[in-house]
């Protein structure tokens, strides 16, 4: 490994073209600069300069060494900037949450992204277990979970809660709903839908609900933004957190049907314990909290 101090002395010597001036800039003696040059030449096994009286010219090895010295300076400058700079509007940011909350959150992030061209926001819709594992690994700066993970390596902040909703076509708004009615309509299923059914439908129709595997299906889709589309067209019913309903483009064609017993899912903002959050992540926290506040 080249000695960094010797390399810096040589780079300064090349810039000034004079031993005395290089010594003054480096706050050294002229013999000290000469000694650094000699030791650097010993390290590479080649002469770096050709002396001409009081002046000198660079050998081919010296030119290569000078370029390396300039490059090392630039790298060190970038490193120092990366270590000390904490620009809210520049650099990468990774967030993970449920698909329904992502639909609510992403539009809230877009104005910030538009105003900050050097910012790179990565929002991933993922299952709860994947979010938890990703935050623990450091893949995500921030995650939004449906429960306090109660993990020794994580910090969790309660954001609020959102209601789990039974979604019917808007035309059904004034009609009392029974489980038989739902079976007649048929379920528009999605990856989380069966767990939602076991949660909400079993709570409200305990005598009739046979389990998610016995629901009559009208269709299924795994694209969160498309789940309410069939219901808006009068086909079937579905179950979604409120965040997945409120951002649907044809919201007016949907009805959130009131049930005797309501169910809410908590929202928790999680991050690795003891990790210094960047200015980007701290700003994103505020945006996430504001998005969750819309669900109250």
TrEMBL record:
Q: Show the stretches that span the lipid bilayer.
A: none
Per UniProt, the keywords (alphabetical) are: DNA-binding, Transcription, Transcription regulation
Could you tell me the superkingdom of the organism this chain comes from? Bacteria
Q: Which SUPFAM superfamilies match?
A: Periplasmic binding protein-like II, Winged helix' DNA-binding domain
Q: Which CDD domains match?
A: PBP2_LTTR_substrate (cd05466)
Instruction: Please state every residue range assigned to the domain named HTH lysR-type.
Output: 7-59
- A GO molecular function held by the record: DNA-binding transcription factor activity
Pfam families in the record: HTH_1 (PF00126), LysR_substrate (PF03466)
Record family assignment: Belongs to the LysR transcriptional regulatory family.
Q: What is this protein called?
A: LysR family transcriptional regulator
């Amino acid at each position: 490994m080249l000695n960094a101090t010797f390399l810096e002395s040589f780079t300064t010597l090349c810039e000034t073209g004079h031993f005395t001036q290089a010594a003054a800039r480096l706050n050294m003696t002229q013999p000290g600069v000469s000694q650094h040059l000699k030791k650097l030449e010993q390290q590479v096994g080649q002469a770096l300069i050709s002396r001409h009286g009081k002046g000198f010219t660079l050998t081919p090895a010296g030119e290569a060494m000078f370029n390396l010295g300039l490059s090392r300076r630039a790298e060190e400058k970038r490193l120092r900037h990366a270590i000390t700079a904490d620009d809210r509007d520049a650099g990468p940011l990774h967030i993970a949450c449920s698909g329904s909350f992502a639909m609510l959150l992403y539009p809230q992030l877009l104005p910030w992204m538009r105003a900050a061209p050097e910012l790179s926001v990565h929002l991933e819709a993922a299952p709860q277990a994947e979010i938890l594992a990703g935050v623990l690994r450091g893949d995500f700066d921030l995650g939004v979970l449906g429960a306090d993970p109660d993990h020794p390596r994580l910090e969790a902040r309660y954001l609020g809660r959102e209601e789990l909703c039974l979604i019917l076509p808007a035309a059904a708004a004034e009609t009392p709903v029974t489980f038989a009615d739902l079976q007649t309509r048929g379920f528009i299923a999605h990856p989380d839908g069966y767990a939602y059914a076991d949660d909400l439908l079993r709570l409200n129709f305990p005598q009739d609900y046979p389990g998610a595997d016995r629901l009559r299906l009208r269709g299924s889709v795994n694209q969160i933004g498309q789940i309410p589309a069939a219901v808006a067209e009068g086909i079937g019913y579905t179950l979604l957190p409120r965040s997945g309903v409120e951002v649907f483009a044809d919201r007016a064609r949907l009805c959130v049907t009131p049930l005797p017993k309501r169910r809410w899912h908590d929202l928790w903002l999680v991050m690795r314990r003891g990790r210094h959050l960047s200015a980007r992540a701290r700003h994103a926290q505020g945006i996430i909290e504001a998005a969750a506040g819309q669900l109250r």
